[in-house]
Amino acid sequence: MKQKASIGIIIGNRDFFPDKLVSEARLDVIEQFEKLKLNYIILDEEETKLGGVESFRDAQKCAALFKKHADEINGVLVILPNFGDERGVAETLKLADLNVPVLIQAYPDELTKLDVARRRDSWCGKISVCNNLYQFGIKYTLTDKHVLHPKDPAFAKELTDFVAVCRVVRGLRKVRIGAVGARPGGFNTVRYSEKILQRNGISVTTVDLSEILGNANKLTKDHPEVKEHLDKILAYAPKGKTPDEAMIQIAKLDVVLKHFMDHNFLDATAIQCWTSLQKNYGCNVCTSMSMMSENMLPSACEVDVTGTLTMYAMQLASGSPSALVDWNNNYADDDTKCVLFHCGNWAKSFLPDIQISNAPILGTTVGVENTYGALDGRTPASPLTYGRISTDDPKGIIKVYIGEGELTDDPLNTFGNRAVAQIDGLQDLMQYVCKNGFEHHVVMNASKTAAILEEALGNYMGWEVYNHSKSK
């Protein structure tokens, strides 16, 4: 995600501490933001004493500024160069009513500067600010170290991760997902609750598969959009042995899916592919799904709506595409490794040897000639974040598991989209997945973003989150 993040900045102050600490903090934090190329919204030094917040009047001014830029602000950073005024910080956030993530930073003291003229007491002030935010019901994020200087490289990482948390939260609270077709009868595992999702700001727009296929069948190979989409598909991946007729079918379907997404302002899709498409239309939709996912419009098969929601969340956290996979096979007798697999809809980023092919397993029941459009390719070694968002209807909640591992270059002689994953405590993870009723689908992302996802989904979205990596 290349767009700049806008973060509101509150500099807390308390009147009996040296004012110069506020001025120094302002310069420190602005320098860090500019180094990271982040947008910021901050009080002018003339609006309050040095642009700090230490009274209700200051809070009113800062809140008014934030409200003016509410559409831009994804999160708020609270800077404590000294003890700070906990009420000023809390009142600002209450009055601004942004409902965005809040990061609390506090400056470290120096042992040689603990005299009256130079001491900060930010260690203590941070506790007081957090106590007030807790009382006000305002959720907040902490730095790993209790006090941390804004010029410390560790703070740059904290701030970058916080911006990713803000991106996930903002994205999920307004995401629009398209459900194309009915859930395949043999896949009870992907059932979900639209109502629980809607309560969390996640909208699902449905369409009957017959409408999509009917509109696709009305197009001809000579239609300008079909030609345009065919060229894009051929530029995306080699066609291999895929017949020209199948390529035309794939292109026509791609045109109609784009129309559906554009008309409904969708961010992601979940598409019925097993087995109506093959029987009634004569091709797979995997290539189109791969192209959408590569272009940050994630698409999941088997109408796995919460699967594509997970893809979207991970993409927001990492800024890179995600893929829906099956927890599919053991890897020989190695208890820490397993095979991840799907027919062939992973984003191109995962498949350096990508090629348009067919789906041999599906072909055994519907005819291989009706399965062209599935992709073939092996994912090489890379970092791995995996996880799954699911609605637990009996409990009326959204639950999540996440973790980190590695994708490896271990030998794997098979077809389709495939990868080998190495995960510490894999057997315990599978126990957790099975005991807690999660789906056989999981999502992978080539990143290390489990902590970002835990903070965004657990703290701010209020979902039940299990971080397997942390448990290990």
UniProtKB/TrEMBL annotation:
Q: Which domain of life is it from?
A: Bacteria
Annotated ranges, domain L-fucose isomerase C-terminal? 340-466
Gene Ontology molecular function, alphabetical: L-fucose isomerase activity
Pfam families from the entry? Fucose_iso_C
**Keywords on record:** Carbohydrate metabolism, Isomerase
Entry GO CC: cytoplasm
Q: Which GO terms describe its biological process?
A: fucose metabolic process
Name of the protein this chain belongs to? L-fucose isomerase
The species this protein was found in: Flavobacterium fluvii
